[in-house]
Each structure stands twice: as structure tokens, then as C-alpha cells.
Amino acid sequence: MSNIESSGKHQTESRKISRREFLVVGGAAGLTLGFALEFGTRRAAAQMAGIAGPPAATQVNTWLKITNSGAITLTIGSSEMGQGSFSGLAQILAEDLMVDYTKIQTVQGVPATGATQIGNAIGTYGSTVTWTNYWSMRQAGAAAREMLVQAAMNIIGDQNSSNYTVSLGVITYTPTGTNISYGLVANAAALLPVPSNPTLIPDSQFRYIGKTVNRVDIPSKVNGTAVYGIDIRLPNMVYAVIQHSPAFGGVLSGSVPATPGGMIAVVPTQVVAGTGRGTEQTGMVNAVAVVGPNTWDTWQAALNLEVSWTTPANASSLSDASIKSEAMSAFTTNTPYSSGGPNTPPTLYTVEGNLSAATTAILGAAHQLSELYSVPYVAHNQLEPLNCTVNYVPGVSCDVYVSTQVASSVLALVNQLTGLPLSQIHVHTTYLGGGLGRRIETDFVSQAIQVAMAVGRPVMLLWPREQNFLRDQYRQVALVQVNAGLNSEGNILGWACTNVSPTILGQRGYPVGAAGDSQCTEGTTALPYNLGALSTQWISHPSPIPVGFWRSVGMSVNTFAVESAVDELAALAGQDPYQFRLNMLTDPRWTAVLQAVAGLANWTAGPPSGHFYGIAGAHYANSYVAEVVDLSLNSGDDYEGFPKLFTINTVYIALDCYLAVNPGQIQTQLVGGMVHGLNAALYGRQSFSNGVAQFPNFSQNRVIRMDEMPQVQVTLIPNPEQSTLDAALGGAGELGVMCIAPAIANAYFKASGTRIRTLPIFPNAIMGGLNNPYI
Amino acid sequence: MPTNYTLNVNGQNYNVTVNNPTMPLLWVIRDLIGLTGTKYGCGQNLCGACTVLVNNVATRSCITEVQSVAGDTIVTIEGLSPNSTHPAQLAWINFQVPQCGYCQSGQLMDCASAMLAGNHGANIAAQMHNICICGTYPRITQAVDTL
After folding, report:
1. What is the CATH number of domain A232-310+386-462?
2. Averaged over A141-159, what is the pLDDT?
3. ipTM
4. CB < 8 Å to B65, chain A
5. pTM, whole model, 2 decimals?
6. Contact A94, A220 (CB under 8 A)
7. Which CATH architecture has domain A19-221?
8. Chain A residues in contact with B60 (beta carbon < 8 A)
9. Which domains does chain B have, with CATH numbers?
10. Could you tell me the sign of the dihedral formed by the alpha carbons of A190, A195, A200, A201, in that order?
């Protein structure tokens, strides 16, 4: 997701740090620097900037510790969900601290507990961890190094700094060759003031930044020792399995079922304030948890439990056809946004420009485009099913073990439900078996806390796979209408883009202002093309099916529409789609990344015989990305007997993130993001009938396997010769996702002459279960 | 009706008591024996995160009833090698395969099974069909190409 405070236009931020932002803890344990990194939101950054004086310990979420023995630990408050950001932060630190990267031990930290953190998620999302904290980490490493060197200078008694060198955590006094390890001076350094403007290593002397180094978490992920939330085992722990009302909006009808034989309890759970979305309102008992001695027996008891659920009054409107027809009618039947008004969906928001001017320009143009692009609800697919383990001792303590992207929200939730003070609440963030945005939510955490409070024992609450698919907070359904006009020279004279989709921020109680929901409009705004008379609108869709942050959020929806429409305009103009984009582009970095991907694919020479190219580009999280898809037509069927229209041979990806800290890691993020977008483009869809989601497992939520994986080639725009504090880095975690759908659609048009304007491309493909011929 | 079984897992015998002999091996391994490296992903023989070796053959433990494997030789990710020295584990580290890592126990056991059957390189990859949501397939392919 992008930052919720963002207006949709991505800003370049400068980031300067003062010594007031470090908290020094000295004493017998060595040197400890505490600081507050930014995870997730600009709101958090603003609060940090407002700290007067050193941050209180309760505001610190990251600690650098150098012990007397020279051991270095970096304790980080964000989450590791496979994106490698723990390693990235350690890699940045190693540069300016001038230590061996492999000697830094990274430790999962806890959320800061300062009052400003409560209810304000300092989360891991938005492709933000590495790039938003790059300069802070460098400053921290440099400050610590200078304090250690100063301590050594004080011991030697020579204040001429040119007589000292540092290498791999050892300070050398060159006149005598005396070596002083960091550990030896760590205590003394802790007594010194933090330098206000420490000297950073010049880029030309980088040993780690810009290099591909191994990740710290990988050894534990090849031998079964990495601990995910689902792997927590506590003494006396019991297992709870959730069963929700089949229909969104349904609640428990009648009494709570009796506890089945062999089970410990049946606990009704209600929607807790702050966790309900759309149909799920605070106080509704929308699920029951069966508690038992192990997962399997408890799960079977939950499946066999006879529970009565109400049918929500609006169930008939919560079906695919009615959701689509509501979206269609919202284009013409809506109410313009009014400041202070109720703005009940469907409300029309003017995001950019002016519709009547754009329409006039389009109607007067020589060639006109008017097309509708459609995407469905899509589930998150994170492979580790949702789970949370809680050990609650009434009045004493509450420990929560959870794979979450928002540890601070978990902290606030425990406080809200138990009334325990923050000092008695301990949130243990484990590795995440995928986050993808689903673990920004805390609905499952609130249920685990409720069950633990009811049964008085440590309990792990699990959502079986089916509950994950049937009770997701989905990528938003959307219809995007693009009207545009070209003159006879192929220039765009007018562009009118209107997106109809349910509001993500609104379902969470965040204010949605005159420019609409940034999470729904991103990707339609601040486009880099010369579009002539411009209109960008968003209309809120009334459907209350829960929607949420799905890796790259609005970008994956809108880039499909915008980059498909631009391609259609190129065809109308009779121009090569790559050259057409170059002609229209106004942003040199976007142009450069497009040229880079075209060069990688050798676009000008063209694809091999029988292959066809499609291209798309996007700008997000301060980065620029472009992809080229190489596909060939295929007349056969896939292994399920569905027509296999095409084979994707190769995907070329180019990224400009200003400065690539770990190019190998960025490459994996781009490939992984592309696969996530590919799964959705080909197969991703949740279907609804009378409020009940229809596709419960991977059989109908198909994703690609090894045999469908295209070749991938990645190129990165080279790092600057000398980076500057005024320049912001860009993200990578979501950048691979958004271009793949339009690049496929554009390549397929080139191959077949047929446009794909509705996703997924194979809505009926399923994956064999027991009949899967692979097994 | 509680039933007792003796299971040989990673060279060690475990006596387990289950309430129902249809309990899948996955949950016996995870909840009763306490080895958590084998993962639950789908429960329906679709994703492969739960793959273990039963008599040297990759087996989806989420649909394998415990009663069907009593007396068999079962190997989980924890028993693949001492100290992560199986060639597949070394290749996975060398090529930095995992991202979130949740599927990788199953991927490695799938790979190990294909190796035990005498396959190498691309022939191993051709037999690997487990789901990876993070999209580590290219690096798996690279790693497997060295085996």
C-alpha cells in the first residue's frame, strides 16, 4: 500500500536526522543506540519528527547494541515476511559502522509502546522498510563508529583523527600499529555525546551497499528451524479452530452450541472495534471457535458443529451479477462529493482535472477510444494460514505470538481487550509465511485474544485454509472506464478515466476526502504522459464485501486499465506501443526505465519468430518499473482441459529505485511480485453468491507452479556515482506486481488482434485436487 | 477410540495415541510429535507444503492417514540431514532460494525424493509441482540444475 496520508502523487522526500533522534544507553553492557525508524506511514514519520529531545525508550523501535565482547546486534521492530529487509537494514548498517556484515546479528524487536504509537500501525507494508530507513541506518552506523573511534582516541591520548583507521570493527592507531576492537571501547563510547553530523562513507568506497550479499534468514528456512506463527508451542497450550458465518454479514442465531465430546470449549467471537470491515460491524458474533487438544480433532469438531447463522438482509445484493450491475449503474447514478456530507456510496470524487473539458477535447478528436476494464475481487493467497497464539494471565500479563505486519496494532488491540497496561503486554512477531497485505489486518488476532480470555489457557487459534479464502479482505473489485481522443498526428488531446470500486480506507473508518480514496485511485493519478485535457474520477462502490490491502493495492488494478488503454491508443494511432509511449512521456526517469526494458528485450529488433511482445510501465513507492512480456499463441489445452490460449515465454523487468542496496534481493522481489500479479491476471478471482464466497481452496484459486513459470530477466538502473541525503530511494517489494497484467494483455493483442479487458484471463481454470495428474 | 501407533520419524521411534486413525500424518508430526518444520498450507493435497518422505518417496502428509504409515520410514525436513548438509539444502543456500520460506520444507523434500529416485538437474525440476506464492521458482530451478 502507499501511505494513507499520501494524496496519490508520490513525493520525493529529503530525510535529515539530528542527534536528538538517538537515545544512548550506556553502562556495563557496552554501547546501545536506540532510534525510531519509519515503518509504513508518513503519519508515523510526522510524529517522529515532532519528538523534542531524545526519543523516550517507549518511542524507540530499533536498537543497535555493541557489547564489550564486540558482538553486534540490530533489533528491528518491523516484520520479516520474505522480503529480506532485515538483511537489507543490517547491510546498510555494516557500511558506515565499518564491520563485517555477517557478524551483525539481527533480532526481531517489539513495537514501540509510546502513546503516539497506539492505534497507529507502525507496519511493514508499502515496499518501505529498506528505502525509507536507508539514511537513518547509515547515520546510526556512522554515529556509533565515530563515538567508538573518539573513545579510542581518548584512551590513546592522540586527538589527531588522521592517525586512526577502521576496518571490520577494529580501530588501528597507525603510528604504533595498536589495534583496539570496538568491544574494548564500547563502554567508554556510551558516555560520549552523539555526533550531530557524522561522516558517511563515500559511495565510491562502498563494500556492502550495492552488492548482492546473502540473507541472514535463509539457513533457518532450509532446515525447518525458522519459526512461523503456526509453529509456536507453549506449555499447556490448546488449539482453537475458527468457523465463520458462511455469509458475510451473518451472525450467530440462537444459543452457542454445546461443547462436542473430547473438546474443551466452544467460544463465540465477536467483531472487535477497529477490526471490522464492510459487512462485519463491531459487536457482531460472526464466528465461533472450537477449542480442543490438537489441530485435527478440533478442526473436525468445528466442521461437524451444528451452528445456526442468520442470513443478512442484503444477501441477495452480495452476488457477482448484482455487484457488477451496481458498479455499472454507479457510473451514471451517483452523488458528487460534498465536504462534510455523508458521501454514501456511490459518491463521485473528482481526483484530477475537469470532466467536461476532457470530454469536449475527446469528442472533438479525430480518433476516439472508449473502453471498460474490469477486475474481480481477489484473495491474498498467503501460504501460511492465519493464526495467532495468546497466553493471557488475567491482571498479570498477555503474550501474543503472531506473524503480523502490524505488531503495534496487535499491542493496541490487546490493551483494548484486556485493559492491561502496555508494559504487561508482550508481542512476539514471528516469521511470516507470506504477508501480501492480509497480515495488516488483526481480525484473527482479536479472535485469539477473546478465546484465550475465555478458556484461561494458552491457545493457538487457526483459520483453516478454507476460512482464509472465504473470509478474506479481498483486493477490491473495480470497473475502470477510459475515454480518450487522438488527433491525426497521434497526440492525445483528452483523457477521462473513471474508476468505480469499494473504498478500502472508508471500510476502516479513515476519512475519505475530496480526492477520493488514494488506495483506489493510485495508478490513475499523476500519470507521466501528455494526456491533453485531463479528467480522473473515482466513484465509491456500495458493496460491503470486505476489501483490503493486496500487494500493490490500487496499482495492480489501475495499471491494468491505464497501460491497456495507452496501448489501445497506440494501435489507434498506428504506432509501435513502445515508441508511442516514448513520444508521450514527460518524465525522464520513466522514459529511461522504459528504454532499459526495451533494450533488455531487444524490442526494436523484435521477438523471435512466433513470439509477440507487450509492454507496460508504472511509478510507485518512489520507484519506476517497466515490463515486457514475450508470449506465443498456443492451441492446446492445459492439464485441466481448459484452453491454453498462450504461453508466456519470458518476462523482462527494469527498475529504477535510485539506489539498489542489494541487487540480488531486489531481483527476487521483482520476480516474486511479478508472479503474484501473474497469478491474479491468469486465475485470480473470488466469486460471491448471496454473501457467501464460493472458492474455498487453491483448487479454484489457482496459482502457477514450476511448469508455468516464465523465464525472467531483470535489469536495474545503475546506482548514482554519489548519492545524496536529499535524494529518496524507492521501494521494490510491490513493483513487480502491477505491470504484468497489462503487458500480457498487450502482447496477446499483438499476437491475436483480440483485447483482454477483463481479468482474470482464465476465470474458470481450476487446479486438480486428488485428481491432479501431477500427484 | 484412542489408538496407539509407533512411527519411525527421522530414525527415531515415536509412540503416538490418536483419537481417530484417520488423523493425517501432518498433524501427528506437528501437534503430537512436535516437529514443526513440515507445514500446513491447504489440507487438500494441492500445495505440497506438507511434503515428507515415506519410504523415500515424496508424500503429501496432509492427506496421508496415520494408520497407513505405521511401520514405514518417515523423514521430515528436520531429518533430511544433520547440520543442513544435504546437497539440496546447500544448493538452496547457495542460490538464496527462500523468500518467506513457508513452502521450502516441502520443496526440499520433493527435490530430495526425486534425487533418491536417481534424477538429476532438470529431471528433478520436472517432478516438482509444489506451490510457491513468493515465486522462487527460477531460483529453485537454478539450485536444482546443480544437483
Report:
1. 3.30.365.10
2. 95
3. 0.98
4. none
5. 0.93
6. no
7. 2-Layer Sandwich (3.30)
8. 775
9. 3-78 (3.10.20.30), 82-145 (1.10.150.120)
10. negative
